[in-house]
Amino acid sequence: MKCAVLCENPANVDYVYGAKRLERLATLCDLLPGIYSGADVAAGKLIDVEVLFSTWGMPCLSEEELDRMPKLRAVFYAAGATDSFVRPLLARNVKVMSAWQMNAIPVAEFCVAQIVLALKGYFRNSREVRSTQSWSRENVFCGPGCYGETVALIGAGAISTLVCRMLETYHLKVIVVPSRPERRTISLEEAFRTAFVVSNHLPNREDNIGVLNGRLFESMRPGAVFINTGRGAQVNEPELIDVLRRRPDLTALLDVTCPEPPEKESPFFHLPNVQLSSHIAGSINDEVGRMADCAIGEFEKFAAGKEPDYLVCESMLLTSR
C-alpha cells in the first residue's frame, strides 16, 4: 500500500512521530521518503498514494488538489481536532482517523491533578504562606479536601468524560454540564454556585464564546477555583479579571487565554490569584508519541481490513457536546 506523510510543518512530524516511528511505518507499508506539502499534492507528486499520515499542520486540500490524489483512501492524523481539514475528505468518502482520544488523556490528567490540589486549597495556601508566622492552619487558607465535595465539569465531551472517570476513585460529587442547553439537567448558574472547583471543557464553537461570564464567577463559593483548559475565548476575560480583583479569595488556573499569550500588559500576569501555564495541558514531549502510536495502530487495523476505532464522521463535527 503506497503511503506518504503530508504536513505543512515538517518539524511537527519530527516532533510527533520521530525517526523510529517513521522507520516502523516504512516496514508496514510502501512509504514514500520525505515529508510532503499541499504544493506537492498540487504538483501531482502523490498521485498514486492511497494513505496519508499527518499531525498538526495537515493542510485542508482543495477539490483540485484532491483530484490529484484519485487513489486516496484514508488519512491517519496523529493529533486531535480535525475540523480545519476534514470535511473535503469526508465528502469524497476518504476515511479519517484522529488520535483525539489520545490527546484527551494528558488534558484529563492535568485537570485531575489541579482539581485535587484545588480541593486541598493548595493554590491559595501556597500564596499565603510567606513566613513562619503564617504557617499554621489558623493563619492561612485550607481547602475543604477531597471527601464529599462538589466539582463541576462544564462540557460533556471526551476530556470531560475522561476526567469524570478518573475522579471516580475519589469520594466526590461530580456535576457535568453539557454545552447544549437542551441536554442539561443542571444549569451553568447552579454549577458555578454549588461547586468548589469548576473546570471548563466546552467545545470550540462560536456559540460558546464568552459564555463563562462575570455573573457566574461572582456567584462562586468563598475560596473556589476555576480551571480553564478549554479555550480562552469561552471566558469573558475582562469580567473574570474584574471579579478576581474584587474577590482575592477566588483562584483562576488558566492554561489557555485569548489571545495566547495574553497581551503584554494583561492583569493576568499580575493578579496574585491567577496562575498561568503556557497551554501545556495537551500532549507535549513524551506524550505526543502516544498519538503517533495510535495513528500507526489504526493503520495496521485498516491494512488488515478491520475498521479503525477512532474514525471521524460528519455527525461528530455537528454534535460536539
Give the gist of this structure.
This protein has 321 residues and is of the alpha/beta class. The chain contains 13 helices and eleven strands.
Q: Could you characterize the architecture of this molecule?
A:
- The chain is of the alpha/beta class.
- The two termini are 36 Å apart.
- The relative contact order is 0.14.
Secondary structure layout plus pairing:
Blueprint: E1 2-6, H1 10-16, H2 18-28, E2 30-36, H3 38-42, E3 51-54, H4 63-67, E4 74-77, H5 86-91, E5 95-98, H6 100-119, H7 122-128, E6 147-154, H8 158-166, E7 171-177, H9 188-194, E8 197-200, H10 214-218, E9 225-228, H11 237-246, E10 251-254, E11 274-276, H12 288-303, H13 314-318
Parallel strand pairs: 1-2, 1-3, 3-4, 4-5, 6-7, 6-8, 8-9, 9-10, 10-11
Helix pairs in contact: 2-12, 6-8
Low-confidence stretches: none
Tell me the distance between the termini: 36 Å
Indicate the radius of gyration in whole angstroms: 22 Å
How much of the sequence lies in strands comes to: 15-25%
Give helix and strand order, one letter per element, not per position. Answer: EHHEHEHEHEHHEHEHEHEHEEHH
Nearest-integer average pLDDT:
95
**CATH domain topology of the largest domain:** Rossmann fold
Structural class of the secondary elements?
alpha/beta
Name given to the CATH architecture of the largest domain: 3-Layer(aba) Sandwich
CATH top level assignment of the largest domain: Alpha Beta
Summarize the main sheet.
6 strands, parallel
Global shape: elongated
Query: Could you say how many structural domains there are in total?
Result: 2
How many beta-strand elements?
A: 11
Helix content: 25-40%
- The number of helical runs is 13
